[in-house]
Amino acid sequence: QVQLVESGGGSVQAGGSLKLTCSASEYTYLMAWFRQAPGKEREGVAVMNSDGITSYSDSVEGRFAISKDLHKTNLYLQMNNLKPEDTGMYYCAAGGLVDRWWHRRPADYNYWGQGTRVTVSS
Question: Collapsing DSSP states into helix, strand and coil, what is residue 44?
Answer without folding.
Answer: strand
